[in-house]
Amino acid sequence: MALSARSLAVVASLQPSLQPLAVRFAERAEEMGIPVELVQGARTPEEQDLLKTSGRGVTKAGALESFHNYALAFDAVPKAYLSLPDWNPTGDAWATLGQIGKGLGLNWGGDWSTPDLPHFDTASWVSIADLKAYWEQFKTIMPVTVAPTGAALAMLAGLYLLWRWIKKQYR
Q1: Which of 13, 39, 118, 150 minimizes the number of CB atoms within 10 Å of its CB?
Q2: How far is Cα 125 from Cα 118, in angstroms, rounded to an integer?
Q3: Tens of each residue's pLDDT in the chain, 171 residues
Q4: Other C-beta atoms within 10 Å of 143: how many?
Q5: Beta bridge partners of 77
Q6: How far is CA 133 from CA 40, 49, 139, in A?
Q7: Quick one: CA torsion of 155, 158, 162, 167, rounded to 10 degrees?
Q8: DSSP characters for 84-140?
Q9: How far apart are CA 49 and CA 110, in angstroms?
């Protein structure tokens, strides 16, 4: 699987320890029959404020209130949904993508009270409060090491085996 130039740029914008997870996410999605485009990675505080105040309802988070501001989040959209209004929020692929991300130990925005289906971040590894405090003290992004947990890898392996079994049943 080859990532598009846009997806590669998103991966490059992320903290180094998150980059392999973003690539693995895209690979797993394609294996499950859902090729994705990574459409957003790191954002500056200014870009975050512009999104918040755009009136489009893209985010409720202001500057330094999003994992995107710390290069610890990415947004992924099924390629089949890219040209659809609002990226087809009722599409079947979202639940599968959410499971893939959670299987890698990522937090999925689709689980929020106001869902953000394309969003995946590292909320289980570090808090926004800690990231913001580090930023305010050192005026730089706090380096964070992320890695999938054993339980997350086991869940992902189970999902993959289930998918293979289902695919075999319907050939």
Answers
A1: 150
A2: 19
A3: 789 999 999 999 999 999 999 999 999 999 999 999 999 999 999 999 999 998 787 788 989 999 999 999 999 999 999 999 999 999 999 999 999 999 999 999 999 999 999 999 998 889 999 999 999 999 999 999 876 555 555 655 566 666 667 667 776
A4: 11
A5: 37
A6: 24, 18, 9
A7: 100
A8: SGGG-TT-THHHHHHHHHHHTT-EEGGGSSS--TTEEE-TTT--HHHHHHHHHHHSS
A9: 22
Bridge partners (DSSP) listed for residue 119: 75
Which tokens hold the place of 79? 């390629």
Cα 57 to Cα 80, 116, 150: the distances in Å are 22, 10, 36
Contact 98, 110 (CB under 8 A): yes
Residue 128 in tokens: 């926004």
CB under 8 Å, gap of 24 or more: what pairs does 138-144 form?
A: 141/15, 141/69, 141/70, 141/71, 142/70, 143/15, 144/15, 144/17, 144/18, 144/70, 144/72
Q: Structure pTM?
A: 0.84
**Nearest-angstrom CA–CA distance, 162 and 165:** 5
